[in-house]
Amino acid sequence: MKTVFSKVKIFPVATVSKDEISNVIPIGFCQLVDNESIWLEDNFMVKSLENLGKN
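Predicted structure:
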């Protein structure tokens, strides 16, 4: 996984609402911190954060 992270420039991040409506956004900053943590840049992720909070 570390090899993939080092090569990818834009990371698609997908969430889904309780009403099963998908939301996919491109993330330009994504860092693999350790085997259990990934850091994402939090710019304009309003709908994604809302979906994560409800699911």
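Summary: Residues 46-54 form the longest helix (9 residues).
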